[in-house]
Amino acid sequence: MDSAAQEITNLTERVKGAVLPPKLSELVLVRLGQLSKLTASSTFLPEFDRMEKYIDWITNLPWEKKTGDKLDLVNAKSIMDSHHHGLGAIKERVLEYMSVMKLKFERGETEDIYRAPILCFVGLVGTGKTTIAYSIAESLGRPIARIPFGGMGDPLDLRGQSRMHAEAEPGKVIKALRDTKSRNPVILLDEIDRVTEQGRSSIMGVLVELLDPKQNHAFLDHYIDFPFNLSEALFIATANNTTSIATAVMDRLEPISMPSYTDAEKITIGNKYVLPKAIKAAGIPDGVLKIDDDVWANIVRPLGYDAGIRTMERSVDGIVRKVAKLMVEGKGTTFHITSENIKQFLPQ
């Protein structure tokens, strides 16, 4: 057997050994049979390369693989509280959804058990829209994939390109499924209001198909060219505002407002979440850095009002980096930041 025939045989065995929809497997095997008759043709190698790439994609998609959900409400609340201060309405909504899933599962009502609300977190920059989605995924025990919409101008970014094109590849939705290795992941549709004006209408059309439970059970990516069931995926969207989101998309979303943080809330978040995380990331031992309570007002608002916490995060990171540098230079082993010396540590 020559090498070309052997390569086709290897691909055939790979398809037969993979978990694929029977109809898709049948179509690919027919195509491989046709390809085997072209081994002497000058078009064989390009066609073989395209077929090999396609088979690599379809055999690595989770057609039947799902992630088991963790439906422990106490544990879920603990996880969300450990990452986010406040946001009670959002946490309550997630716990309600998990409760419905748990009751249905216990009653044996598996049909539509995973039908989820499509939450859309709406708020200013830095209010925690993206990070709360990661906490929700961790609470459920599901993998998460993020699809950024900022600057997206072509619906093919979501839906993929036909294999007729030389450099064709699947869209971001199929890539998310391959990355998570699960057909029921959390898929974060980040900043859906920030697509380009030129591509807005067509991208919103794809979003309607993604988010509509009557359509997404057979989502069609142009590259894969075979329906994929997305009905068990949990979609979470974020947006700075809803004015540029199509009405048809909004009809399928459950918008939840992400409020701006007060200074008191920022101080709590800084003390409880941001500072310990920054200290750990910098490799600074516990007990080395202490910040007085009355200093936090300067850290939280060094340049004026900020709805989110990103300015505070940058300030804290700058302080921690300064302390790390002083430690390495041998200029101290413990550091106490007070209202008298804070200006020496704040980034300029």
What report would you give on this structure?
The chain is of the alpha/beta class. The protein folds into 3 domains: 3-59, no CATH class; 73-257, 3-Layer(aba) Sandwich (Rossmann fold), CATH 3.40.50; 263-345, Orthogonal Bundle (Helicase, Ruva Protein, domain 3), CATH 1.10.8.60. It is built from 14 helices and 7 strands. The strands form 2 sheets. Strands 2-3-4-1-5 form a 5-stranded parallel sheet, sandwiched between helices. Helix 9 links the parallel strand 3 (186-190) and strand 4 (234-239). Helix 4 (73-83) packs antiparallel against helix 6 (129-140). The longest helix has 19 residues, at 88-106. The radius of gyration is 25 Å and the shape is elongated.
SSE map:
Layout: H1 3-17, H2 22-36, H3 44-59, H4 73-83, H5 88-106, E1 119-122, H6 129-140, E2 144-148, H7 156-159, H8 172-180, E3 186-190, H9 200-211, E4 234-239, H10 247-250, E5 254-257, H11 263-281, E6 289-291, H12 296-300, H13 310-328, E7 335-337, H14 342-345
Parallel strand pairs: 1-4, 1-5, 2-3, 3-4, 6-7
What are the main properties of this structure?
348 residues; alpha/beta; Rossmann fold; 3 domains; 5-stranded parallel β-sheet; two-stranded parallel sheet; elongated
Described by the principal axes of the CA atoms, the overall outline is elongated
CATH-scheme architecture of the largest domain: 3-Layer(aba) Sandwich
Which regions are unreliable across 5 or more consecutive residues at pLDDT < 50? Answer: none
| Total count of domains | 3
User: Under CATH, the topology of the largest domain is which?
Assistant: Rossmann fold
* Estimated helix fraction: 40-55%
- Helical run tally: 14
